[in-house]
Amino acid sequence: MSISILILTQNEEVNLPSCLDSVKWSDDIVVLDSGSTDRTVEIAEAAGARIFVRPFDNERDHRTFSLREISFKYPWVYNPDADEITPNELRNEMLAAVADHSRPEVAFRVRFKSMFMGKWIRHSSLYPTWVMRLFRPEKIRFARTINLEYLADGPVGYLRSHFIHNGFNKGFNAWFEKHNKYSNQEALEAIMHISQSHVDWGGLIAFGDAVRRRRALKHLSFRLPFRPTLRFLYMYLFRLGFLDGWPGFTYCRLMSIYEYMIVLKMKEIKRRGKGLPV
């Protein structure tokens, strides 16, 4: 049994060739494009991918469309981002997992190696972070509208191999543009969560459940003062980001800037809600 590939794109001509080359072992590659104005669609067509186009509204609805409205050749779908590369070790492990019909899992989480300045920033990137990439599409649904939470209707497994994440291939300008948009949704979500939910204190010590613990830490951070500074100190000192050298220091600074953008936009939303000037 093989695996279908699903890649969501928007202006990914820089990243897409490497991503497609790493999954060329599949004979069912699907690209859902959001209206690229560069050579993304041309590159995908040249690689033999099936192309679908849908204007992007929000991540949850867009990904829901990709799983509900697109038919795949195989029961299992691997869903890399365009800036991710799939090594042969991960390919082999995935193929073996889906071929074993005795396994109960309906989805699998995978770790990744974040690359920055030509180096794996193992400590600064808070490795390991587990993300859902391989699944049966009919068993998956989503919560949240940004940094989606994947919900699986069945057991979820964990694969040993990694994929490679090249999040800075398109340059700092693209990184800031993307995180400027993300910070809008993060600010709205933080305000909503503070008003409607509570901290999962048990999750903070759930060392056997990395996904729950990461989520609990994030929700706790919404309530902390000096969040940008604390995030830098947590990543650079507590999580040993300094061992990643200059790339690690720069990455930690960038993430503290992103945190500050969220804080500022939370303040803006609150002031506008009170009719106050920004």
N-to-C order of helices and strands: EHEHEHEEHEEEEEEHHHHH
- The gross shape turns out to be globular
- Secondary-structure-derived class: alpha/beta
The count of β-strands is 11
Give average pLDDT, whole number: 93
CATH class of the largest domain: Alpha Beta
Number of domains: 2
CATH superfamily of the largest domain: Spore Coat Polysaccharide Biosynthesis Protein SpsA, Chain A
CATH architecture of the largest domain: Alpha-Beta Complex
Distance between the termini: 57 Å
Q: What fraction strand?
A: 15-25%
* Poorly predicted regions: none
Gyration radius, to the nearest Å?
19 Å
Q: How many separate helices?
A: 9
CATH topology name of the largest domain, in short, is: Spore Coat Polysaccharide Biosynthesis Protein SpsA, Chain A
Overall helicity: 40-55%
Largest sheet: 9 strands, mixed
Report on this model:
With 278 residues, this protein is α/β, with parallel strands linked by helices. The protein has two domains: 4-165, Spore Coat Polysaccharide Biosynthesis Protein SpsA, Chain A; 172-273, no CATH class. The protein contains nine helices and eleven strands. Strands 1, 2, 3, 4, 5, 6, 7, 8 and 11 form a nine-stranded mixed β-sheet that branches. Strands 9-10 form a two-stranded antiparallel ribbon. Strand 6 (107-116) and strand 7 (119-120) form a beta hairpin. The radius of gyration is 19 Å and the shape is globular. The chain starts with a strand and ends in a 5-residue tail after the last helix.
Blueprint of the fold:
Blueprint: E1 4-9, H1 16-22, E2 29-33, H2 40-46, E3 50-53, H3 59-68, E4 77-78, E5 84-85, H4 88-99, E6 107-116, E7 119-120, E8 131-135, E9 140-143, E10 149-152, E11 156-165, H5 172-196, H6 201-204, H7 210-221, H8 227-238, H9 245-273
Parallel strand pairs: 1-2, 1-4, 2-3, 6-11
Antiparallel strand pairs: 4-8, 5-11, 6-7, 6-8, 9-10
